[in-house]
Amino acid sequence: MTQDDRNLNTEPTKSAPEGSEAETVKPEEGKSGKKGVWERFLALPLKARFYIIFSAVLLAILVAFIVMLVMTVEHITVPDSGVPRPNWYGFLIGIAIVLCVVWGNYASLRQGYYFELVIDYIVFAVIFAFAGGILYYAIFNNWTFGIGVIGGLIGAIVGVLVGMLFYRLTSKKKPKVSFLQMADLAVVFVLLGQAIGRVGCYLAEPQCCYGIEVPVEVFPFSYKVGGVIHLGNPFIESIWCLIGFIAMYAMYMSKRKSFNGFYTSLYCIWYGTERLILEFFRDPEQKLQASGSMGSGFGISQVMSILMIAFGAVWIAVYVIRALVLKKKIMILVPKEMLSEDYLDYTHTIYYRPHVDDEGHPIDYAASEAAAPTDGKE
Q: What is the pTM of this model?
């Protein structure tokens, strides 16, 4: 593990002495002593704040969905109305990004990361993900336009690395977060985004990512494309990713914690396995080849899937072997209250020295350490 993959913190979390207010920095009240709407909102428990924001986002999405639906109906029933056909594929991608950002921000605070973490890096990740997806598809399909999921993942990785470099050069005050820590947070919600985004394949123009020809139409497991019935690969992948999201989110948000890179490895194994198998049942006209065209051979996505699976398995295996050699405990789904330096790489995780407390308030370690007695005397 490189230095960049570490939290670069050197001291464990310390609580301020009883009665001290130096440990966390909480929102201040107005000068009049009365709390305004924003102050009252910030005073709510973190979970309550998340539910309010998430509900507002879902309401906005519902309104947008109704508008899109009305536009679609009018476009179909009144072709000469001048109403453009809504881009449902783009709409679903947008929904996936918004939900992942809002939900991911809550998850990051619950883990102990500083408030702006997701916002700091999402712009870099999204821009480079789209660029990577488009470039990946173009390279392996005679430079035609499209978006490849695996190319998007590679682009997002580059985007996060660029963001890390940008903030290291421009902002020395931001808490340090390693690439693997951000990756573990991100991959959980990438699965959610993929589960939503794959539904858009049914609504894209032209339709994409469908499977081989099958004899029976049972929507959404199979559906017609150009009058021919095809296997519903997008639906199968969507369900697979949704199952992965539910399982990984439950583990990530539980009180059992794991070493940096554990969830990244799980994602690579989970998604890589699905993509490797499902590509065998993908229509040849939708299957990217390493030669730079579509075809029925072993696809480039399958090659990338094998590499993903290998990376995930090797990363976990190397960690376990290191722990055994160094005679350290293995930090995989360990109850948080049991964590100590006896666990390999525990001091590199966010749980060793979190940026915020359980309610998302920044922890002022300098004030806590200055207020703590140094010789056993008050």
A: 0.86
